[in-house]
Amino acid sequence: MTDVIHNLTIAIVFAPLLGCLLTGLWCRIMPTRMAHAITIGLMSLSFLLSVYVAKLVLFDGGASNSNLYTWLISGSFQFHVGFLVDQLTALMMVTVNFVSLAVHIYSVGYMEEDKGQVRFFSYISGFTFAMLMLVTANNFFQLFFGWEGVGLVSYLLIGFWFNRPAANFGGLKAFLVNRVGDFGFILAIAAVLNYFGTLDYVPVFSQMPQFAASNPTMSIVSGTSSSVVSVISILLLIGAMGKSAQVPLHVWLPESMEGPTPISALIHAATMVTAGIFMICRMSPIFEYSATALSLVLVIGATGALFTGFLAVVQHDIKRVVAYSTLSQLGYMMAALGASAYAAGMFHLITHAAFKALLFLAAGSVIVAMHHEQDMRQMGGLRKYMPITYLTFFIGALSLAAIPPFSGFFSKDGIIEAIHAATIPGAGYAYICVLIGSFVTALYIFRALFLTFHGEERMDQHVREHLHETKAVITGPLLALAVPSIILGGLMIRAMLYPTDFSLLGHSITVLPQHDVLRITAEEFHGVWQMVLHSVTTLPFWFALSGIAVAWICYGRFTTLPVWMARRFSWIYRVLVMKYGFDDFNQLVFVRGGRRLARWMYEVTDRELIDDTLVNGSGRAIEWLSLTLRRLQTGYLYHYAFAMILGLVVFLIWVIF
Amino acid sequence: MPVPVSDLMLAAPQWFVLIMTCVTLLVSLWSGKKASPWTYGLSQVTLLGAVVITALMYDQPRTVAFYGNMIFDKISALLTIFVCVITAFVLLYSRDYLKQHKMAYTEYHVLTLFSALGMMVLVSSYSFISLYVGLELFTLPLYALIALRRDAAVFAEASMKYFVMGAMASGMLLYGLSMLYGATGTVDIPSIASAIVGLPQGQHLIIVFGLVFVLAGIAFKLGAVPFHMWVPDVYDGSPNTVTLMIATGPKIAAFGLVVRLLAEALPDVHVAWQHGLILIAVLSIVLGNIVAIVQTNIKRMLAYSSIAHMGYMLLGIIAGTASGYSASMFYTLIYAIMSLAAFGLVSMLSRDGVDIQRIEDLRGLNARNPWLAFMMLLVMFSMAGVPPLAGFMAKIAVLEAVISVGQVWLAVVALLFAIVGAYYYLRVVKVMYFDEPIKKTDIELPSMDMRVAMTINGLSVLILGMFPAVLMGLCRAAF
User: Fold this and answer.
1) A633 vs B291: CB contact, 8 Å cut-off?
2) Which chain A residue has its CA at the smallest distance from B166's CA?
3) Which of A28, A143, A428, B150 shows a CA-CA span of 20 to 30 A to A181?
């Protein structure tokens, strides 16, 4: 069975690459229909195979870890391309492929009028390939390849409409901010290679307990010493912060909404941004041995969960609301990891992939119907024109707001309870954050719902006349995603979080006994319906419900209230609209400062010192020499004859003495 | 003394060229026309016949003939073949130019053939006497060739300069050879080599003294600094076809001279001549590359470039190893091919009374004739040493040779000045491709055979660069 899994994984990973190359290389001449057929066909193949592999791994207990080939041998270091397929990988593969397939199909409708759509399909298939390489990697090196691959394709996709300045800016910003994270990540890989002598997961993870027990230290700044495990973990965390958009490296995610909406759903909701979460889960054998790093993960995650949620409340762009909600939900996942509830993080990742992709695609459906208008102040009352979109958005919103018995409820409740049970430093702060967060989450998503689908119709006459439900190719994926958004949580919670006889994650995650918060919360768990009934007595439920209520009061009933509030608490409003000043700070310090430094480098060191003095200087010197030496060529025969004699004499002296 | 028939057989290529040249002369006289097709046809038959004969003899073992005056070995065979092939190309490229500029057609061909004969004698000489005879036989016709166009004073001036300085250089060489004869009592190359081994220590000074004069003569024939003064003036002052002749075949012959005199006659004073050659090579590389930069005249530029190239060629000789000699041989042959193409293009483009003189005259060549421009581009890139062209492989080979004997600094200097050199080669490319042409009209194309020849010539630079193994193998086998 191991070989079967290995071979199937090869097919799963390379089918999207094939689609990417076929459509990418002939993107100028290929008919769009053909591009759709190729990419969607190969993507379906990949999805079906990954479901089968998931069945083999999750239910039949199979696993595989073997190398496909050795890419490079450098000294004693070997770099392989290989696949590690365990429960974690299998779950991720299904999630990635499911969302990717849905997005492929949805894009047929969404990108209908776009001339560059063959290129677009090539990109999203390429993205899927990179993401699959990332999740199937059996070594850090391949992980990094996939990591960079998704970064690159996301840059291409955000800037897909490359004649829009905002799209280019967004793409560049995403790329640059991710570089900061990647820098930490590659340092972490270097440290692993340095201390373990290999980049393969299995030997590194198996050496880890002994390694941590010897408590090795390193000196980063001379005179200080820090734990190697903590340093590696924190560097890995920095990488994850970039890709999973954690505070303060979250700034790229809202800008990335300049890309086409399917991309926002694919990259910035379900797959790429979860790479960091997946990576930390994969690295749980390392993180577990660093309490410092875990606390940091917890605090950063919880902070992001709450404070980026606030920002969603003041956004007017429907996609940006969803984008900030992604930031907030990623914060939840990260916080769960920090509390060592990796399973809860992964669980939320999976349910979130479903309902967030649903929300994005529903928002996209609205945008298509509104002729690419994204401002919610121009919407309202869409409920009666677009019933399917409304219904699915509503389901997504309920799931996101963690209303039982929707999927989001189970996963988010699992996280909140786990953090509540955690005892590491920062857990108390984190608990308050995620609790208030659940109120904010419900508030902003229902605000968006009420503004878009209820109330008076604020769009202009022309748009209103053309309003109608979008095509089946768009609503199809919406309905398909609505199903898991409703039931997935209830189906999976026992096997994911509180396994008794059957566990979805198995032994793919390492948790030290003293950190095992899920074992504590498992004692409270008495079945799915018990949990739903019990929820009415818990705080998160009432927080969420009050969020919905406030949203209804402010945006459904008394619509003047928010305006009054914004005026009354104008400083808070301003802070939120300014996004806590992160963007301005970056713009001022890094962008402008960087440009100023670059300009100085260009003008002083490069142009004056290198170009003028060294390059042109040597050129001038040679030209001068050349002009001088040519004077020797006088054209007079007796000069030449004299030179020959002189040369001979010099030669005699040179050779004989 | 009777000469055995086998010796005469061994000299078959030389005999063949001698007899056929006389036949060509007589037929041309009888045909009565100024530019008889017979002259051209017979000349080509002469050269190609010599190539075929030499190629057939190629596998014969190394033999000394004519009482030690002549040798047949792989070196002489390979150099003879290349001399003949290149001279054949020279005649082909010159044909139209000669007619258009009304140059003496028969004389040009016959003198060129005699010069080629001299080169053949030189490369297969094995004593100082035959060596000197060959040397004079190949240079004397060149003096006459330069002065063949009597419509302008520049040609006569160039001829005079070349003749006077050539005479001086011959004198120096002869003086050096007489010193060696005085010290060893023989003129046969192998006898000199063995005589030096047994020489008492005190006698070495006279050998080295003679060696310096020999080196001066060699440097003059190569056109290397500080005996290079004639090169720019003669290249510039000669008719384009004669420059073509001077810039190609004689380099191969001069390489033969170097090998016979230094590698075979004086291997035991290797340290002394290595010492001298280092100076010559470095000065040539530096001065050739630097002065070429400010030249506006393309022939002068190529003249300085040839000075630099001869410096690079000497690097392999300096190494003093078999692989060094073969690298130098490879370099010489590649340089001859590149130089043939460059000057060939220059004379081919000099049509309708227009003499290509300045680099500016090539402006916008790409717009007017892309194929010829591309050939020139290949040659310029190859001369600059850009991979994957032949010039790159040749440079690699000689640099490898000097590095393998530990002269790393020499390789570094050579490389640095190769970068300087790239400037003026690339300028030609820039002028051809990026500058507006002065005349927009298409270039009137030369005849088909010339175009084919130029294509073969240009592409050979590319092909020899990508598949250097065959020629490299032949050069290795020679040593």
Assistant:
1) yes
2) A641
3) A428
- Are A641 and B164 in contact (CB < 8 Å)? yes
Q: Which of residues 405-424 of B touch A (CB under 8 A)?
A: 420
Q: Which of B125, B145, B150 is nearest to B135 (CA)?
A: B125
Q: Angle, nearest 10°, between helix axes B204-222 and B240-258?
A: 160
Q: For the full predicted model, state whether its pTM sits above 0.90.
A: no
Backbone angles phi, psi at A90, to 5 degrees: -60, -45
Which tokens belong to A145?
């390849």
Tell if the CB–CB gap between A655 and B229 is shorter than 8 Å: no
CB of B373 within 8 Å of any CB in chain A? no
Mean pLDDT in runs of 10 for chain A (657 residues)?
88 93 86 90 94 90 85 77 91 89 86 84 92 92 91 88 86 88 91 89 90 83 82 92 86 83 76 88 90 91 90 87 90 92 91 89 88 84 88 92 89 90 89 92 92 85 81 85 88 84 80 84 83 84 90 82 79 79 80 87 83 81 82 82 87 82
Q: Do A637 and B168 touch (CB under 8 A)?
A: no
End-to-end CA distance of chain B: 32
Domain containing B439 equals: 5-478
Domain count within chain B: 1
Q: Which are the contacts of B94, defined by CB distance < 8 A and separation ≥ 6? A: B108, B241, B244, B245, B347
A654/B275 CB distance under 8 A: yes
- Is residue B216 within 8 angstroms of chain A, CB to CB? yes
For A459-479, b/e burial (b = at least 16 CB within 10 A) is beeeeeeebebbeeebbebbe
Q: Is B205 on the interface with A (CB under 8 A)?
A: yes
Q: Which two tokens stand for residue A64?
A: 């595989």
Other Cβ atoms within 10 Å of A238 Cβ, number: 21
Residue of B nearest to A652 (CA): B212
Q: Which chain B positions have a beta carbon within 8 Å of A646's beta carbon?
A: 226
B212/A623 Cβ within 8 A: no
> Which residues of chain A have a CB within 8 Å of the CB of B290?
622, 625-626, 629
Q: What is the dihedral of CA B80, B83, B85, B89, to 10 degrees?
A: -170
Cis peptide before A248 (omega within 30 of 0): yes
Integer Cα distance of B164 and B182 in angstroms: 27
Contact list in B for residue A622 (CB cut-off 8 A) is 290, 293, 420
For A637, the closest of B164, B205, B227 (CB atoms) is B164
CA distances from A10 to A4, A48, A102 (A): 10, 14, 22
